[in-house]
UniProtKB/TrEMBL annotation:
Location of the Histidine kinase domain: 147-346
Protein name: histidine kinase
GO CC, alphabetical: plasma membrane
Species annotation: Paraburkholderia guartelaensis
PANTHER family: SENSOR HISTIDINE KINASE ENVZ (PTHR44936:SF5), SENSOR PROTEIN CREC (PTHR44936)
Length: 347
């Protein structure tokens, strides 16, 4: 088994350090709660001292009828308990928001372990242990998947060479089609494994116009025509390899199913919109979201062109890693628009 099929070493550790640097403890919330707790404790101590003094100089029966020595400490204890409950609830909500935000971006959520009370810190540590274990197991499975897929290429190549020796042309063609489909599945499995590693690529400032121009030139050198409309005009903070892979998947899909393929570039406020447009058959409205599922192929396009059904699934995952959005929309004039939207941040 070839262990070099994919370079995903230290993937889990890199993701943990990346997210650990991104998450920060809620210092404002902690200081606010501590500011409220101090006067509550002072008032509670004063109330207890007052109750002790009052019971020393005044008969307990008289004070009990008045109720003052008991009511004030009880109210302060209740206020302290309520404040503690609110504090724990606020920290749990903040942890939940951190985890959902990180997981929504396609990364492994890592929570700061020094925020809030001891119980919250222990919960964060337990959560991080689970995340670390999951990331390690995922990296191991990716190595296995990549190795199996890589090693399958060799027997497939031998089978393709031997199938050419078959004298019956119809049988030979059928074998060639089956082998081509198997090769696509193998390549798709490798793409899935590599996509998981590309999702951990760090963000950095890149010259978007140069990246897009080089991409279009590569298609032109390969004899494929893809028009480029518009320009960014400024550096973009993103993951360049992930961005290129997303655009390649979208453009390849457009070239596979349609013609007159264009890459439209426009800047809208604080967003960069990259739209790949074609004049193909489009996708039924009910399946515009389903096609993002791995291995899914729309019935109306599956028969017209080959494919593994992984291109859009990979593109969606990498888009989330770049904090962006990927949507499909049928064009009014016919064809499909694959719209990639990325946030623009100051460089």
């Amino acid at each position: 088994m070839n262990a070099h099929a994919i370079d995903s070493s230290n993937t889990s550790n890199a993701s943990l350090h990346t997210n650990a640097g991104r998450a920060s403890p809620p210092e404002g919330a902690r200081q606010s709660f501590e500011a409220w707790l101090r006067p509550i404790w002072v008032l509670l101590a004063a109330a207890c001292a007052y109750a002790s003094y009052a019971t020393h100089d005044v008969p307990w029966a008289v004070l009990a009828r008045a109720g003052l020595p008991l009511v004030l400490p009880a109210m302060l204890v209740a206020a302290l308990a309520a404040l503690k409950f609110v504090e724990l609830h606020a920290y749990v909500q903040r942890m939940e928001a951190m985890a959902e935000r990180s997981l929504g971006e396609g990364a492994d959520a890592v929570l700061p372990e020094d925020m809030g009370p001891a119980a919250i810190a222990r919960l964060a540590r337990a959560f991080n242990v689970c995340v670390h274990h999951r990331a390690r197991r995922q990296a191991e499975l990716l190595h296995v998947l990549a190795a199996y897929a890589h090693d399958l290429r060799t027997p497939l190549t031998r089978m393709a060479m031997r199938s050419e020796l078959v004298e019956d042309a119809s049988v030979r063609d059928a074998l060639a089609r089956d082998l081509a489909e198997m090769t696509e599945l193998v390549d798709g499995s490798l793409s899935c494994a590599r996509m998981q590693c590309s999702a951990q690529e760090p963000m950095r400032s890149v010259d978007a116009d140069s990246l897009l121009g080089a991409l279009i030139d590569d298609y032109r050198d390969a004899g494929r025509t893809v028009e480029l409309e518009g320009r960014v005009g400024r550096p973009v903070v993103t993951c360049p390899h992930a961005l290129r892979r997303v655009l390649v998947n979208l453009i390849d899909n457009a070239l596979r199913y349609g013609v007159d393929v264009r890459l439209s570039v426009r800047v809208e406020a604080q967003r960069l919109v990259l739209a790949v447009l074609d004049s193909g058959p489009g996708i039924a409205p009910a399946r515009l979201e389903a096609v993002f599922a791995a291995w899914y192929r729309a019935p109306e396009t599956a028969a017209s062109a080959s494919g593994s059904g992984l291109g859009l699934a990979i593109a969606r995952r990498l888009t989330l890693a770049m904090h962006g959005e990927l949507e499909l929309e049928n064009r009014r004039t016919g064809g499909l628009e694959a719209r990639l939207t990325l946030p623009l941040v100051a460089t």
